[in-house]
Amino acid sequence: MGTLYLVRHGQASFGADDYDRLSERGHAQALRLGQYWRERGIRFDAVLCGTLLRHTQTLAGIVEGLGGEAPEPQALPQLNEYDSAALIHSVHPAPLPAPATPELYRQHFRLLCDALAQWMGGTISPAGMPEWEQFRGGVRGVLDLVRQRHAGGDVLLVSSGGPISAAIGEVLSTPPEVTIALNMRIRNSAVTEFSVSPKRLMLQTFNSLAHLDAPEYAGWTTHA
């Protein structure tokens, strides 16, 4: 039986004009995760990655930490994140100030959670985005690929909170409100593990930051 390691990207540039770029902390988180796995002798038989810049930058940091030893990644747009700006605009068309204060930050995520619930329920269709069932189906297809082709190996998958929570929802059959709650809790560079057999996937760990569990990494935990 193999293991699928689902990794959320390192800290990106929340609140900036271009979110899709790792911060200095995000690069450090990714590098540290690769080093942690290298210290424990973990090697991967296959690598899957979304096509967003924050995904490829995170993967590059992990591979550097591993000492450069990783298979050629398979780029899969099904692992790309939903468009949070389009979702929020669907439920709040008026311009919003940048989330530069704790209250504005909370408002941003309240609106996002509301929009996610409506998108999943089929009551909104954000511009430029697939329907929820199509998004979910893309994630399901990736899980099927892993189960069919890599059941006996260890697979690294680098993505975002939305696809990872959708993957957990597929494995655990969670209702939309639970999938959203899981999504909001996945931390930057956190690892979720599924055991993989040809017939099924099973959740083993969720949202782990074991690679940051040392005093020198205090303060490295981030969520956006």
From TrEMBL:
Gene3D superfamilies: Phosphoglycerate mutase-like. SUPFAM superfamilies: Phosphoglycerate mutase-like. GO terms for molecular function: hydrolase activity. SMART domains: PGAM. InterPro entries: His_Pase_superF_clade-1, His_PPase_superfam, Mito_Ser/Thr_phosphatase. It comes from the Bacteria. Keywords: Hydrolase. It holds the Pfam family His_Phos_1. This is Histidine phosphatase family protein.
